[in-house]
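subagent[fold] <- orchestrator: predict structure for attached chain, return tokens only, no commentary.
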Amino acid sequence: MNEIENISESLFESIKHINEYGQEYWTARELQPVLEYKQWRQFFDVITKAKDSCNTSGGKVSDHFADVRKIVKAGAASKPVEDYHLSRYACYLIAMNGDPRKKAIALAQTYFAVKTRQQELIENYERLTEEEKRLAIRQQMKEHNKSLYAAAKDAGVESPKEYAIFTDHGYMGLYGGLRQKDIHQRKGLKKSQKILNHMNSEELAANLFRATQTEAKLRREKVQGKENANATHYEVGRKVRQTIADLGGTMPEDLPTPEKSIKQIEREQKKKLPN
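subagent[fold] -> orchestrator:
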């Protein structure tokens, strides 16, 4: 991911909210300055066009643009102001209907287009090609690795070096004693290449299961201490490996390495996006 994509991802992720049902949303009032609109009136016009686009494409506007009111202070008094809770798709439509001369609009178009596509892949997993499955699982891995990192930190894994050791323990359990660097070498990768970007969907799925179950176990059992966290990660990885063996599956280290990396597939997908 290049520098601009990193900027856009952190920018839009920083104002994302999660409601009580676990659904993500953005507020129009917070999105407005990020997209470089100084006046609500101008931004409201863009929202109106986006709602029209949603309706024209057959979408239910109220599912993506939820009307809300927020109370703000105006001097000594308070008054309600109009706002919207926006789905990712709504944000994408706003970006597509925004002023293309604004750099922030261009960043938003790329970010929300890619993220919307990733969500579509996850929701339609059974009908996906192998490359699309890899993209979908890799995206889930990114999200769950963040949660795993947070759970490990709560358990006492703090420094980057300690987290690298924690990660190695999970791989050693799943890969029969192989560390991250061993898997890296086995796949014939360059130092800068990430092993998760060079796994097929079956191998990625095994690692996703390892990550989600380790996070759950760390939190459920309130594991404390980095040594205990490492042992937990190893044990979960080992049990995932045992499950694969019990089912007669191929061990992850013996699965073929795909010719295309996730990064290559992502670049090809972006070229297919509308300009």
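orchestrator: received. Logging for downstream: Residues 1-7 have pLDDT under 50 and may be disordered. The chain has two domains: 3-123, 132-272.
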